[in-house]
Every structure is written in C-alpha cells, then in structure tokens.
Amino acid sequence: MAAAAEVPVAVITDDRAIHRRSFRNFAAIICAGGRLGRRPARPGRTVGKDLGMPRPRIVIVGAGFAGYAAARHLLRASRGRAEIVLLNPTDYFLYLPLLPEVATGILEPRRISVPLAATLPGVRVLLGHAGAFDLDARTVEWADPEGNRGVLGYHRLVLAVGSVNKLLPVPGVTEYAHGFRGIPEALYLRDHLTRQIELAEQATDPAERRARCTFVVAGAGYTGTEVAAQGTLFTAALTAHRPLIRDLPRWLILDTADRVLPTLDPRLSHSAAQVLRHRGVRVLTGTAVEQAGPDGVRLTNGEQVPTRTLVWCVGVRPEPLVSGLGLATRDGRLVVDEFLNVPGRPDVFACGDAAAVPDVIHPGSLTGKTAHHAVRQGRLVAGNVAASYGHGQRRAYRHRDLGFVVDLGGWKAAANPFGVALGGVAGKAVSRGYHLLSMPGNRVRVVADWMLDGVLTRQGVQLGLVRGSAVPLAADDRN
C-alpha cells in the first residue's frame, strides 16, 4: 500500500512507543466505560481518543474465511473504539469454493474476489506479508509487495494465516504439477487446458494428441472432485467444434482413499462418483502419483499415463509461518484452547486452518480445515477478543455441521442440508443458494455470470496472463 512506502524508520519506532503508551492506558479506558461496543459509563465522560489516548489496536493476520469474519465482527463490536488492522498479501477476500468455476470459464476472477477496503470500512487494511513476531514486545514485522518493511505494535493479535498446498515427497511433482489455491492458479489452469486442446488439434502424432487431451487430478477431496467434474465439461465445450479431437479428452482423478470425497457423507461421495463416471472421468481409488515428468505420470499401481497436465489437489497443510512462532503446535497447527486463545498468551488468538482447535463434540480430535469451521471460528474469536476487554462473555467453540455442498458443474451437484441427501437440480439449487448466502459481496455479478453461462457458449481463448513459472507448486514455502 502507498502508506507502507511512506513509513520511515522513525515512524516505526514511534509506533512501538504508541503501543506502549496505549497499553498503559487500558485500565483508564475500561474504568471510563470505554470497553468495546459500550457507551461511556457516565454522561459527560469521554474515553479513548477523546481523552487523548490511542485506541487499543487489534491486529488480524490473514483475510481468508476466518480472518475476514473476525475483522467484520470485530468492526461491529468495537463501534470505532478500537483500531482494527488487517494484514493480508492481497487486497481482496477470495471466495475459494467457486474457484473451479473461474478455471473453467464460468465466472470471471473478480466475481469471487471481494475487496477488503470496500466491504470493511473502518478497518485499516495493510497489503503485505507477516514476517517475524515478537510476542513479548507485542510487535509484528511485515513487508509490502515492493519490499518496504515495517513493525506493527498490537494489543491483541489474531492469527488467521490459513493453509497452503500440501506437498509430498514424490519425484517430479514440484516441477510438473500445479496447485489450485488462488486466482493465479485458476487463470493458469484455464489457459493451460485451452492450450493443450489447441495444440492437440494441430499435432500430427496421434500419441501426442492423446497425451495433450489427457488430464490428471491428484486428490479426490472437495477441490479435486469439483475440478475434475467442471473440467470435463470445459474440455468438452472446447472440442465441440474440433471434430478431429472431439472424442479424445479424458480425465482421471485418483486418491489414496477408498472413495471420492472421503471426509464427507458417503451419500455425497456416491452421488459425486456417479456423476464423474457418467461424464467419462476415470476414478482411481487407492492410487497415488509415484513419479511425475514432462510427458506423463507413473501411478502407484504401475500404470504409466501420458499427459501434459497434473493438477495437485491432495490437500492442504498449515501456513509454514506457524512453525516459526516458537509456540506449541499439533500436526503443524497452532495449539489453542476451546476459546481459540493460545495457552500462556492471553493476548494472542488463532483460528482457521492454521489453528488446532479442539473439537469439544468429539473429544481428542481437532476441527476440520474447512470454510464452515473457519467462518464460525472467525466470528467466535471476534467475540472472545471483545470479551477480553470486558465486553460480553467469552465462549467455547462448538459447532455441528449442517451439511456440505459439492458443485459438479452443469445441472449436477451433491448436497446434504440438515442430513438430507440431494442431487441433480435440487442439489444444484441448494449449492448455488448456499454460495450466494455465504459470499460477502459480488452476488449480483455472480448471478449474472451464471445466467450468461446458461445461454451463451464459453469463450475458449488463452489470455496468457499467468505463466506456469509464476505459479510453482513449491511457492508456498516462501516463509
């Protein structure tokens, strides 16, 4: 951000001093009735900035599902009596569940990119990456996209740094596979699929044609299943006017589990598998990629698959930043209690994929890394941060899943709202209704794109905006 480029070292030092002064004045603010979300206790008394005191600063790192929800609800609770700072690498919240529709030409990328500044008025948005944390001094070092660095003091810290692609020690994967976690990967995949179809049409070698028209998805979870289901419709549309290769596209989806969508309701798994097979997708369970190369992949069942496309959707792992905090972790996730508070650090909270949130409904286990949990944890952490200032009572995280939706493209979807299994048009209606209700913005634009896709053919052109070298699978290890 422009503001970051203008922050000299002297101002950074002042920021720490402001942090110390503001912390010393916490008791005065509370006694004056300036607790988050409450009016002054007695008429005529003013608090916070009216007393010449800096407002308490709450820093949220990450604007995914958890971080965005936390910022939104803290903004409502504070009513301007706290400074809320949101540090994020992008200036938008990404509605990740609709990313496959960007990759297959249904939605334009800005439709699922909700601007932070416009939807969180009153929140100070800093564009950049978090670096080192000094939890004793209560400071965060950060850098903006142009390399300018700053130090940010805080009174409460909310870590919602999310997750990155899960890497496995498979030869060739980091060189020849591409992940699917953001807008750049989706734009690259759309161009890549289009390019392979176009190059297959002009190839003279039948073996090369088949290889370019073969697409492998590793991982049959939520993302992988949707990519394969949506992708097969996209390549069918691309070859509809290319008689030479019209019948060549084939998709493979593989997973080490015994079924697709292994973590969801078996009924959803069965419905999704039926749709995939009906569209000609080859489903290989109990199978993984053993080695990847420029001309194909070798599977653990011994099969060699000639292909130029390997989409890596084997799952996610916590953001590597967590491991450098010097705090306790479990399975790579930051240990927190049921109130989403880091033990021994009453001023530090964590939520979302990077937090090891105990599942009080299933003692001994952790909550899953899903958007459902992340949103609800973000809301709860906002309330518990407010409670730490004396506004309301803190609550433990407790959540029962009300169901999941899996959009399979076309008029197909699988959903189980309140445990009722739905498929076909009914499942599609529930799926799209759920997404519209869950999106914090851009709903009209999304509906408009859906309507246009229903009556117009998709534009199968390459834009060349993102090259493969710009979205390497191992890029998430930058920290």
From TrEMBL:
The keyword NAD applies. The keyword Cell division does not apply. InterPro entries: FAD/NAD-bd_sf, FAD/NAD-binding_dom, NDH-2. It holds the Pfam family Pyr_redox_2. Residues 57-378 form the FAD/NAD(P)-binding domain. Keywords: FAD, Flavoprotein, NAD, Oxidoreductase. Belongs to the NADH dehydrogenase family. This is FAD/NAD(P)-binding domain-containing protein. It comes from Actinoplanes palleronii.
